[in-house]
Specification:
Layout: H1 3-26, H2 43-55, E1 73-77, E2 80-84, E3 93-98, E4 102-113, H3 125-133, E5 138-144, E6 147-148, E7 156-158, E8 162-165, E9 178-190, E10 196-206, E11 211-222
Parallel strand pairs: 2-4, 3-11
Antiparallel strand pairs: 1-2, 4-9, 5-6, 5-10, 7-9, 8-9, 10-11
Length: about 220
């Protein structure tokens, strides 16, 4: 092949790649791209913040285990709100959001730590990372105000190793109250929504657990 033809092929390939990336970004208005950083933190680093938040809440009050009923929990860090809720609820989950807040949504994720039993145990960072990423997260779907989010497989992230502290009444049901963990899952970070009512639908499955999340969030952005 002539050198000129090789250059033409390379240029065409580069244009196609750039077009795909730009199209993927434009296809999800209001959703930060998967390589974005907020307050200097990546999606994976925000997922560690999210797990530190939910692990710190006693079981009786924890949104993940139904401690808040159909009300979500939101932990504010700067202008980012970490949203947590009971993934087993069939009724809509209500969330009140301060205006100007970006939202970190955990569609579905799993963590492995050095204080849990099999199949969530890892003795060191490599084992925890292998454990977490060994679970399959599939059938990803999300919609914001009725608009489907595209290319959700690009929003699967692994966290860095992170430390956590548990209350005595904890959702890991362990007596070890200090540990380390790595998480893996699908997440979205939304730009601040306009004041008023908004809807979010999230769906995903982990076949190993025969577990599926299919929830609707009714968000009210307070003026």
């Amino acid at each position: 092949m002539k050198r000129s033809n090789i250059l033409i092929v390379m240029v065409v390939c580069l244009v196609l790649i750039l077009t795909t990336l730009v199209s993927a970004h434009k296809a999800n208005p209001g959703v930060l791209p998967p390589d974005a950083k907020v307050q200097g933190l990546t999606y994976g680093e925000w997922s560690a913040k999210w797990w530190q938040y939910v692990l710190s809440i006693p079981d009786a009050q924890n949104p993940l285990t139904g401690g808040t009923g159909n009300q979500c929990g939101i932990q504010q860090i700067g202008n980012v709100g970490l949203v947590a809720f009971d993934p087993t609820l069939e009724e809509p989950i209500e969330c009140q959001v301060p205006i100007g807040t970006m939202l970190f949504l955990d569609i579905l994720s799993v963590e492995c730590s050095n204080v849990e039993e099999y199949p969530f145990y890892g003795g060191d960072e490599a084992e925890m990372r292998s454990c977490a990423t060994g679970f399959t997260i599939t059938d990803l779907q999300a919609a914001i105000d009725g608009v489907e989010v595209q290319n959700l497989d690009r929003y699967l992230h692994t966290s860095p190793l992170f430390d956590f502290t548990l209350p005595e009444d904890n959702i890991l049901y362990t007596d070890e109250l200090v540990g380390q963990s790595v998480s893996y899952g699908a997440h979205l970070i939304l730009n601040p929504l306009s004041p008023g009512a908004h809807s979010v639908h999230l769906h995903a499955s982990i076949p190993e657990f025969e577990f599926t999340i299919d929830v609707n969030l009714d968000l009210t952005v307070l003026p």
